Amino acid sequence: VVVPDDSGCQDIGMQEIHRGSTAPPLQRCGEGGCKDLYTQPMEDFVGSAQRLSVDSESAGRRKHGRADQSLAPAHRCLLALLKLGIGCGTGTLPEIPWACWPDLYCLAWEHGVGALCFDGARCMPKGKGAPVSMMMRWYGETSGQHRQKMAFDAAVEALALLFRHRGIPYVVFKGPAVASLYPDPGRRAHGDIDFFVPSAYFAQAMAAVEAVAGVKVERDDVDKHCGFDFRNVRFEMHYRMETFGYGPHQRYFGELVENAMRHELPCFRAGEEDIPMLPPMTDLMVIFKHWFNHLLGEGIGLRQTADLAVAIRAYRDKIHVGTLQSHL
Question: Is the pLDDT confidence value at 181 over 80?
């Protein structure tokens, strides 16, 4: 593993990585800042970051007569690293002040994009990156996320085998499906697995899950799915992929999804199984609708926005823009 430190690039062997893992456990940012992330010599480093934020805000007030409404340095750096990590960077590496790295590290994990930003941090040139102790911790948490992906893949593979043997059509969307569009699918964090079963097969699918997988399906009469836990992974089995407040729009979108499933579907790999996902145009519409729901409801996060950016980039040569606009 090659990680940058303040004096240049340095090769870190597995022995050093193992030693790094014996450091005190990571803690998230709280009112006291990020100092718990580091050993005692890092306290001055954290103090510099806190002073940088205060100085930046004071400078904004002096210049404009009010608090500067632009992003704080750590937030600007976070977006720059995220763009690099998802393959949407401009080719120009960001200038990241050394004192920004503690806040940047905390923000990346708090927003659910820590592993993606780790890839961005690895792109930083010699002498411009994060301290080596931080990169080792970053590497450790990123490796843990890869293990999470392996667990999700195993659960999806088992469910795919069950449905294939019983001839039940389905598609996986969001989650692992959109992760397959990333440069490294293991870098995108997962919460649960969403999949859609056409209405004509939904009762059969529920019965198969309960009888063969041996799990209890929780029926939700209010929302658009039923839920169950299988192999320590949360699944949401949808009978309606997205909800619209206007009946004709709901029927139009439902027919669009079910018509797409009558044709050959693209797949991503989970273990030894090919897992069907939506075709590019329909998939992009679902990702956008999910993003838009969050925008109107509880708010959007960086992970949803990264999903949309990655999907647009992956599908830019695979969709007809005029047709997409007419559907939207």
Answer: yes
Amino acid at 317: D
> CA–CA distance from 82 to each of 49, 88, 107, 268 (Å)?
20, 8, 11, 23
What does the pLDDT read at residue 7?
36
Inter-residue contact 25 to 31 (CB < 8 Å)? no
pLDDT at residue 9 in the model: 35
- 306 φ, ψ (degrees, to nearest 5): -65, -40
Distance CA 53, CA 14 (A): 36
pTM for the model: 0.76
pLDDT of 253 above 80: yes
φ, ψ at 228 (rounded to 5°): -160, 160
- How do strand 225-230 and strand 2-5 relate by DSSP bridges? unpaired
How buried is 64 (Cβ within 10 angstroms: 0-12 exposed, 13-18 middle, 19+ buried)?
exposed
Contact (CB, 8 A) for 274 and 153: no
Taking only Cα atoms into account, the Rg of the chain, rounded to an integer number of angstroms, comes to: 23
Query: Can you give the pLDDT at residue 224?
Result: 78
H/E stretch holding 196 reads strand 193-196
| Residue tagged 């103090």 (tokens) | 47
- Which phi and psi (to 5°) does residue 230 adopt? -140, 120
CB atoms within 10 A of CB 195: 26
Cβ-Cβ contacts under 8 Å for 263 (sequence gap 6 or more) = 279
Measured in residues, the chain has a length of 328
Residue 179 and residue 176: Cα distance in Å, rounded? 5
- Give 37-49 pLDDT, tens digit per residue: 333 333 333 333 3
